[in-house]
Amino acid sequence: MRTVYYALLMALCIGVIGCAAHPKKGAEERADDTAITSRIRAKLANDATLHLFRINVDSRQGIVTLSGTLPSEDRKRRAAEIAAGVAGVRQVENLLRVGQMRRPDRFEDAVIASKITSRLIQNPMTHALAIDVEAEKGKVILSGRVQSEREKKEAERIARNTSGVLSVENQLEILE
């Protein structure tokens, strides 16, 4: 009888210890997932091609789900690459859609135009040129006059590589 009693007592202790250990594991997993989500959001926010877009990030047991809408397949791939590169990520479910974006507001357009103008001024090839930059809903229009095809292409390259730009219309004229 005593043996049965000790066996039951031992089984009860093992069960209690097992139950007590399990919630701790769940709390640790939730903490890890929270840290993973935070690291991914920070990296997306610091990426020049993605920081203007709202990307939803969720992590459960190291499986990360990305959702939202982006303007191109390249940006969708980039977001998945960033998420996959974060420590603790076991898998990325990329549910990001490529399609029509919400329209950037006037403030975002002003920031885009300002960034492009600043970069044109800082570039030795385009700093002395009279290039007008207009931005509306992420679409940039370059106008004015340049000395060569090379300057025209450089101005367009600068505009295209500026975060928030969805398209560039290059109306620059080459002086003869």
Please tell me about this protein's structure.
There is one protein chain. This protein is α/β, with parallel strands linked by helices and 176 residues long. It has 2 domains: 2-98, 2-Layer Sandwich (GMP Synthetase, Chain A, domain 3); 106-174, Histidine-containing Protein, Chain: A. It is 48% helix and 24% strand. The chain has 4 helices and 7 strands, in the order αββαβαββαββ. It has helices at 2-45, 73-84, 106-122, 149-160, and strands at residues 55-60, 63-70, 91-98, 130-136, 139-146, 167-170, 173-174. Strands 4, 5, 6 and 7 form a 4-stranded mixed sheet that branches. The longest helix is centred in the N-terminal third of the chain and has 44 residues, at 2-45. The model is unreliable at 19-24 (pLDDT under 50).
List the helices and strands and how they pair.
Blueprint: H1 2-45, E1 55-60, E2 63-70, H2 73-84, E3 91-98, H3 106-122, E4 130-136, E5 139-146, H4 149-160, E6 167-170, E7 173-174
Parallel strand pairs: 2-3, 5-6, 5-7
Antiparallel strand pairs: 1-2, 4-5
Please state the second-level CATH architecture of the largest domain. 2-Layer Sandwich
Give the H and E element order: HEEHEHEEHEE
Radius of gyration: 27 Å
CATH top level class name of the largest domain: Alpha Beta
Number of helices: 4
Shape, please?
elongated
Structural category = alpha/beta
Helical percentage: 40-55%
Strand composition percent = 15-25%
Give the termini separation. 108 Å
Number of strands: 7
Look at the structure and give the mean pLDDT.
Answer: 82
Please mark out the parts with pLDDT under 50 across 5 or more consecutive residues, or reply none: 19-24
Write down the CATH topology of the largest domain. GMP Synthetase, Chain A, domain 3
How many structural domains?
Answer: 2
The biggest beta sheet reads: 4 strands, mixed
